[in-house]
Fold this protein.
Amino acid sequence: MGGRRLVVYVVWDRRGEVEDYIPFALAGLREHAARVLVVVNGSLSAEGRAKLEPVSDEILVRENRGFDIWAHKDALDHVGAGLSEFDEVLLTNDTWFGPVRPYGPVFERMGAESVHFWGMTDHAREEPNPFTGEGVLDYHLQSFWIAVRREMFLSEAWAEYWRDLPVMPGYFDAVLKHEAVFTEHFLSRGFSSGVAYPSADYPTDHPALFNADLLLADGCPVLKRRPFFHWPPFLDRHGVIGRWLVDDARRYGYPVDLILSNLARNVEPKAFNADLAMHEVLPEIDVSYDPERPFRIAALLHIFYVEMTDEMLDLVDTLPGVYDLVVTTPDADRAQQIREIVARRPRDGRGVDVRVLASNDGRDQSAFLIGCRDILTSDRYDLVVKLHSKKTPQDGYNIGRHFKSQQFTNLLNSPGYTANVLGLFQKEPGLGLVYPPMIHIGYPAMGRGWWSNKPAFEKLCHVLGIRVPLDEISPLAPYGSMYIARPESLRLLVEHDWTYGQFGGAEAYQDGGLAHVLERMPSYAAAELGFHTRTISTAEYMSISHTSLEFNLDQISTTLPGDNVEKTMFIKSAGYTGEGRLRDFVRMYFSLHPRVGRKLGWMLDRSSHFHRALTVPRRVLSIPRRALRRLRRSLGHAGGTS
């Protein structure tokens, strides 16, 4: 079908801005449309408007109510009688990346079909309805892309549908009151539908989420955003690998920096890290660094333990090419000793600056943000390396030794390894920082990485203007506070006017204090500016880490029923288990009364983590009687639950 096409594209952004993937998507659509009307739910900044104007004919800004459904209704009302000028109306939104493959072949193929309306993808009929636990979820076209022809959008049935559209205060209202009923509503009134990529041709009932790679291989121009931000255990359950989807998009020529930047700003960083497998295991032989594109690098070392100076210099000496060395230390005696050690080592003309700090309050955090502020706010360097002398004597020799090694070796292990680390920055202009993965050997960090820092973290985000969603359980953070970063990715941190007095004395260096809050901040500050994070490790350390983590997870999992989704919800149904005390352990098990089990089933169906794609068995998760008897006996020996 040729003729004139109206495209109505809905945008929502928590900041009132416009992400760069949106004008890219609209630029491609514009050549297939006589008119492009963009509807913005909420506010629109001047910068956002400047991005939309070249790729649209009109911009309509409205109150953010009723989701994209009511935005489409307002757009249709706005066009009014002018709708008769068009042969097809495409109702779409910002929930997809594209064009990954060309739009043209799909418009041409679907234009040849004699249907009244068509969608890009569909969802198979389900019984019972997974959103309500009863009844039927009818077959339907997915509402992110529905094109409607003249005979239908000029009909009384069409006018009646939008005139009587119910209010939609919540997400599930939008699904159950529009998306799930729209197709059947018009089919029952004699209109015919088509679908570009029918679910019947794919191995699941929701290919836009579960088989996006197969859709792309078949020429689908759009890639839904959901596979990149859905709850990681749910994607794990269904074997959806976001990293492979990004690789596919790159192979088809899509600028994947648009994907990474958008996700960095709008998805919990640790969930983003898991969904896209943003961890790199790097070889010790240089296979990626281009010496023809060297970086200007400053190595910023905070040294309290002078005896570690040579060890730390050995690490930064693995950096390829020339770098400038800046050392901060608490007093003049240490500074003199450090200068003498540095003087004994060849520097090949590289700059050296040893600085005595006005205060050691805040330790490496204040040394970095105050003592090196002039470096970080200048444009002299492309990358900075942040290291500090670390012994952690309070945690015991073995644990402290492991923590130091985990930080040092995974960041700067050898000339070849370090060159590959810098190669990541050459490959990805949007890469803000890299650091070792979350520490878990010797530390109970898993499951409680926020500790007591989250309330103060939230307040600081408000002060700094960081609106990136915060992770629920643990932040994506450089535990140990050593990393390599682009200075511009840390701008929100380094341009703030910090003072030593804000950090407090030695007694303030604990969870909830500013230093520990800032330790968790870099990836969130970088993400607000569109920079993403990668964790990195050597192959040797990944062998150590993975085998330990796998065994521990296996031990924990044996006491829990179901797959990872069910295990997680099982534990969450009992609440936080504190420091692992026996009474908390007992509380977790005995709380699963059948009534609670029914409630858990309801949570599994409706949790905001799962949204429309969730299909889980509605069964009560129970504990075997033998296990309960053993638990009661152990309680008797323990002297009760107290």
Notes: The two ends are 74 Å apart (CA to CA). The chain has 28 helices and 18 strands. The chain has a mean pLDDT of 89.
